[in-house]
Amino acid sequence: MPTDATAAPPPRIAVLVPCHNEAVAIGGVVAGFRHALPQARVFVYDNNSSDMTREAACAAGARVGREALQGKGHVVRRMFADIEADIYVLVDGDGTYDPGAAPAMIRLLREEQLDMVTGLRVTREAAAYRPGHQLGNRLLTGLAGLIFGRRVSDMLSGYRVFSRRFVKSFPALATGFETETEFTVHALELRMPVGEVATAYASRPPGSTSKLRTLRDGMRILSTILGLLQRERPLPFFGTLGGLLLLVSLGFFLPVLSTYLESGLVPRLPTFVASVAFLLLSFLSLAVGLVLETVTRGRQETKRIAYLAIPAPPPLEAAAAEDTAPEMGPVLKT
User: Fold this and answer.
1) Which SUPFAM superfamilies does this one have (predicted)?
2) The whole model's pTM is what?
């Protein structure tokens, strides 16, 4: 164990809370994290609230900022750019996540030198995590896992702990709730070490209303996954598209071929031309996929180098962790 004279300074911890019209809940969220992480700074960024969110956050002791562009993704981008820390805790301001799980999530991040720890939502309250939301989350998480790798069980959780090198290498292109999908894909694409900690998930406090719209935001998340597939896996994407175009070409061509074999004539010339056009589009799609695959590989290498240029999370001495850290919930590491 190092002596007090040589001990490394404790890591800087920042709690980031993006908010829009959460005056009812935000005071309790700030107080909860100030109690669970007394050494951390709590930042609340208001996103054009029309209620008393800013005043409630200030009264609870948070440092309050503002982002004018509407949408959670815009707020996350601004917070990641503005705030300097070694460890970042990102949580929604609706009071549904348990601040008491944050020390365990941070402990896991430091002990295992991880870059992202996700709060795996566990609840028995039907109103907190509606069956439709659970089903949508499983479907979207399963689709993302099929494409990018099955290493995250709750892709849409709004409770995360990040290392500095995750935050400062994250491109933050999303504008709304699809930003959680970007977190997951960014970690999986760069093969970052990630983990999960089970955490309680509760209903919103009375008087608080959800900003999530199941169908609208579900479609936006699905669109984000498909967009990421096109950008990050261009060869499978355009190769599949090329295969579909080839099937369409064959669908046009086979009747023409049958007629030709029977009569020696090609009376359906427009159909034959259409089959040739779809065949050319099929080859073009495959060529585009091959070219973009090379470009994507180079871009991924550049992102990886930028990620590695940032120091790893500060380690946690095992003995110190055993003496000072609270008990952890069920943990998954990958």
Assistant:
1) Nucleotide-diphospho-sugar transferases (SSF53448)
2) 0.76
